[in-house]
Design a protein that fits this description.
Two copies of one chain form a homodimer.
Chain A: H1 27-40, H2 53-59, H3 64-77, E1 80-83, E2 87-90, E3 118-128, H4 131-136, E4 144-154, E5 157-167, H5 168-171, H6 186-194, E6 200-209, H7 212-218, E7 225-234, E8 240-249, E9 255-259
Antiparallel strand pairs in A: 1-2, 3-4, 4-5, 5-8, 6-7, 7-8
Chain B binds a DNA duplex (19 and 19 nucleotides) through helix 3.
DNA sequence: CAGTGGTCTAGACCACTCC
DNA sequence: GAGTGGTCTAGACCACTGC
């Protein structure tokens, strides 16, 4: 022990080139990258508990604080969830990215309580995806896609109309069950039936005009203005897994953004 | 020294009740709150450099790491900005919350380069604010407001129309200068002319119909659909300082949101 | 070069959760 | 009570900035 005392108790780059420390990445960044890869590779499934931070630190020969910083980074990225007294867990599917956060349907009902939307699958077909969708999903030419047509209702009244495109090669199990048994939330069903976890998504909002059949299904006048939300959802590895177009009454649309 | 050795080197709650540590706030949280108050109170103006973290730590009798966590918290809140090798600074006005991020005006020009919008103040009046605006700005009844009517152009073509409401008691200096000298960005002018720093804002988006005079100014047909962005901007203390309504062609509207 | 923030260590105690 | 994450300490070295 005394032989290495001159190195001091804090020889930080003991396991890497001493001088070439952070060219683009500090020690905790490398650890985060390493753990990130193992999570993305599926080594630990969603919901799985990682080893204790002290164990992880010892396993990787770093101090506790360094490992904590790596874990904090992954938690900030949404890959991990840390629960005091319980452990560190791989995050599962998106809790919810409810489309209704974009809309305020006043109705005649007393406001306040958030009513849960119900959904009805109107069609389920295998067909070639339109070019922009195929591009978004990174489908090869003529590679088949699963198309869902879905109506969402609030208090029994049709409110949102959805066109959902899924790469067939990952969602084939959806062809084997009755859509009416899927429930009102698709992402949990994707995970249960197909093992596909939706981890993040981007919504793009634009303005449009309802086509006649869309207006009819939503019980709105023809050429009524619509808010269109195009969502591209990805799994934990960043692969696009769903392309969804949601249309609703433009006059009911309302959305808030915070700027800092 | 040896006399207190039995306390160990890590008597952490030496300056607080030993057992009642985090009832709702840990040590670093209290430090953050303390510094936050001093920043909000204006003790350090925007752009001011704080003392070195080591100095701050010593001043408050905490370890470096504890003070670092407090400073990191404030940086995450957007109150501070830390620059490696330089120091820790109080953040100034919002760099920019460009309205044009909501719109894509394709034009006939080659895409790519972000063209800067110019602005033209069409009117500047002192008048009572409409009730919703007065409520948003927390103005007392009949307390006067400054109203600006502003047109924003891209490549010389009118694109956005803005109604801006300001509490007169903080923006009186705006009555003393020629609006054409204000430049194209208002927030820096607010800071320079009135000492009001816009620190954060929320945008609320909806769709509506242009009124005849609005359509005329934007060179669009009457009753053309419009995207309406209502922005409520606040200063560093969280006081609402500006209520702004921006209207533009709904068909040019496009906005992206990331969900994680 | 001195001063700043960024990284790392080794070890302690605390609060939460569950058995 | 055992195990987990959360907080704190005291001190070291590193990388960036500007004189």
């Amino acid at each position: 022990m005394d032989m290495i005392e001159h190195l001091g108790p804090t020889r930080q780059t003991a396991f890497g080139p001493p001088g070439a420390a952070p060219p683009g990445m500090a020690r905790w960044g490398s650890l985060a990258a390493l753990l990130r890869e193992r999570i993305i590779a599926g080594e630990w499934p969603p919901g799985h508990a990682l080893a204790a931070e002290s164990t992880l630190a010892a396993d990787h020969d770093v101090a506790l604080g360094t490992m904590r910083q790596a874990l904090a980074q992954l938690a900030a990225e949404g890959l991990l969830e840390r629960r005091h007294g319980k452990g560190t867990f791989v995050r599962g599917a998106l809790a919810g990215a409810p489309m209704l956060r974009f809309f305020r349907f006043g109705d005649g009902a007393v406001g306040g309580e958030p009513r849960l939307p119900t959904s009805r699958i109107l069609a389920r077909r295998v067909r070639a995806a339109p070019s922009p969708v195929a591009q978004a999903l990174r489908l090869a030419a003529r590679q088949p896609a699963l198309h869902l047509h879905r109506l969402r209702l609030l208090d029994g009244r049709p409110r949102l109309l959805e066109d959902i495109w899924l790469p067939l090669h990952r969602f084939a199990p959806l062809l084997d069950s009755e859509p009416s048994t899927w429930g009102d939330l698709l992402y949990p069903h994707y995970e249960a039936a197909c093992g596909v976890t939706v981890h993040r998504a981007t919504d793009e909002i634009r303005f449009g005009i309802l086509k006649p059949n869309e207006a009819r299904l939503l019980e709105l006048p023809v050429s009524h203005p619509a808010a269109v939300v195009q969502r591209l959802a990805s799994d934990i590895a960043g692969c696009a897994v769903e392309c969804r177009f949601t249309r609703g009454d433009a006059h009911a649309f309302r959305y808030s953004v915070a700027i800092t």
